[in-house]
Design goal:
Strand content of chain A: 15-25%
CATH topology of the largest domain in chain A: TIM Barrel
Largest interface: A-B, 40 and 40 residues
Number of helices of chain A: 13
Number of strands of chain A: 18
CATH superfamily of the largest domain in chain A: Metal-dependent hydrolases
Oligomer: homodimer
CATH class of the largest domain in chain A: Alpha Beta
Radius of gyration of chain A: 21 Å
CATH architecture of the largest domain in chain A: Alpha-Beta Barrel
């Protein structure tokens, strides 16, 4: 079965050899042909070959599916009370991340699966077609493995984040926990994970611990990524570049050397503006990274503590408003950028050969994702050419 | 036909005599009975009377429908290019508001109606059940009347805003245009409008012109509201209070005297954070107004130039993040506050006797409107008790 997707509006391909030759490879009055779930042909609608089926986007823009390369979707419970207290500037005496760890451990597999399915569907209907999902609210071998097993039911991009924080039962024994993560926990996580991640931050894991954890993961075949420089300047970004991590995530507090290192590397700087929005924190300096030549991705960081949004359109709008990305830079970062952050050449663009993951918008241009903030503009989502 | 809406989550009534006694009148494990489109009973679900039909919100929160008291939905065309240039910090040589005036004048009635219907539906499905709609892109007697006629097909809350800007053909003859607005245009608008509004701002209409226009409208029976103190300190707020206008809208640049005047009046301070979001401008100081005792409303300002969002949940989230409103204050402002800004005691709350306009959320608490920014959380909308 072949499918033709037609738009008299604009088609964003992220293939600069197509259309207007920009990074977005923008084609107007375009058609895209899907065969066997992949893009088989892209070009001027008047030259499109005949196909079995047609989806007419009319004047709606067509964009590659969002690649959300950073989420924490395996959890139970919510922390609305903590959020409301933070927004009111009040001290909060609850348990923070520990609350989510306790709720996650107490939940059944079915509860974790149902919550994840709900959030995955929510993301999908807002145009997210590839999603990375981390563990990190289990923090025991059994609970981390269970989290990854459930995550793997929904995505190939699973990340072992046993090193999210040191759990309460290891208080004062950080190094014992690091040993557990590097040993038994890593080995048990391995069959269910593609990536290994660590929260390298004051109060979580320092540079030496983070290096040990990432090297242990790499030693058994996991690929590294890292939570780096979110709350303070720290060694995370340098470590990411040293280990050729696919991505350094957050990048809120960067030295000139950090920016230069990222620009000279294949490590993507993944920015997570939902976290700054929801914690009322200063945003990362996207322009500094872009102007230095670093590759920038946008992701949601969806989690119940610091960024409980699944909405990549929202992240695009905030990136434009607050981080001074252009709408084109923000869309590229949320699609092609995310794909680079996951080292996935098959997604995040609509060049020939790509997986036919795309969205049709209720808008004439992708610019509307930022121009019309908060409005649900995703009309139709295709996964491998199949309408969802 | 009687209807029962049940929620084991929370029901926001905005009636402080109900539930927890807060301004939101929050009832848990609640039921609400609708008869003849109005709320007939509210209370503990275990005491609810029998009804013909039941809507079970399960653990979803139930909130009053949003009252969006400030929109400019009668127009044609869009200004995505102008938006993108502004976000990139580039000069824009296009026509600004004049572009929309030209497109609106050139559009057929059917085109204006279709665009308005699309935006009205978009707003409705995000929980807006009462909407004010202004003219102001016609700027000739025929085009203003036509705009109001189309708007009146969608809402009783129509506002004559012939005094939006001075149109190009009256350049250098402001007072002639004011005379036209106060005379023939006002008289022709009257059958189609409830309100009269003026953009009182440097570059638009000064305090004396604004007073003349509002008094002319009031003289024929229209009720006053005013665009005040958006871009600069100006006389708008004082004029609003002097004339007992229902609302002074924007309120971004206020003196202490302005704040005191609002607090001592029945004029609502309507804040429009979508405009500051989309123009990258400083936000109004909501806390200063709230702490002085002024009544605050939130509205979308939906228009194609400076705030092209229909999403009241988005405005709530931004009000919490940027204007330091609590989630409870923001929800109240977007519902009961909007109703006061339209002097409509029958909407914006769910006390007995209110119109049964409400939304069921895909969330256990109204807090999620801010906690989960950008996520479409409105599951079901009822207008006068009828699911939409």
């Amino acid at each position: 079965m072949s499918l033709l997707v037609r738009s008299i509006g604009e088609l964003v391909t992220n293939d600069p050899s197509l259309g207007d030759g920009s990074a977005l490879g923008l084609v107007r009055d375009a058609a895209l042909v899907v065969e066997d779930g992949r893009v088989a042909w892209v070009g001027d609608a008047s030259h499109a070959p005949a196909t079995d089926r047609v989806i007419d986007a009319e004047d709606g823009a067509v964009i590659p599916g969002f690649v959300d390369s950073h989420t924490h979707l395996v959890f139970a419970g919510d922390r609305a009370g903590e959020f409301a207290a933070r927004m009111a500037g009040e001290p909060y005496t609850g348990g923070g991340i520990g609350t989510t760890v306790a709720a996650t451990r107490a939940a059944s597999d079915g509860e974790l699966r149902a919550n994840l399915a709900r959030l995955r569907d929510e993301a999908l209907h807002q145009g997210t077609t590839t999603i990375e999902i981390k563990s990190g609210y289990g923090l025991s071998t059994a609970d981390e493995v269970r989290s990854l097993r459930v995550a793997r039911e929904f995505t190939a991009e699973t990340t072992f984040l046993g090193a999210h924080v040191v759990p309460a039962e290891f208080e004062g024994r950080d190094d014992d926990y690091v040993s557990l993560v590097c040993g038994e926990m890593m080995k048990s996580a391995l069959p269910h994970a593609r990536w290994v991640d660590v929260f390298c931050e004051r109060g979580a894991f320092d540079g030496d611990q983070a290096r040990a954890i990432l090297l242990a993961g790499m030693g058994v075949g996991l690929l590294p990524r890292i939570h780096a420089n979110q709350l303070t300047h720290g060694p995370g970004v340098q470590l990411a570049v040293e280990l050729d991590a696919a991505s350094a995530d957050h990048c809120t507090h960067l030295s000139d050397a950090d920016v230069d290192s990222l620009a000279g590397s294949t490590t993507v700087a993944t920015l997570l503006p939902g976290a700054e929005f929801s914690t009322r924190s200063p945003y990362p300096d996207a322009r500094r990274l872009l102007e230095a030549g670093a590759t920038v991705a946008l992701a949601s960081d969806c989690n119940p503590g610091s960024s409980y949004t699944t909405s990549m359109p929202f992240c695009v709008a905030v990136a434009v408003r607050e981080m001074r990305m252009t709408p084109a830079e923000a869309l590229w970062a949320a699609t092609a950028g995310g794909a680079r952050a996951l080292r996935r050449p098959d997604v995040g663009h609509l060049g020939v050969g790509a997986v036919a993951d795309l969205s049709v918008l209720d808008a004439a241009s992708f610019v509307h994702l930022a121009y019309r903030p908060g409005v649900p503009l995703v009309r139709t989502v295709l996964l491998s050419g199949e309408p969802q």
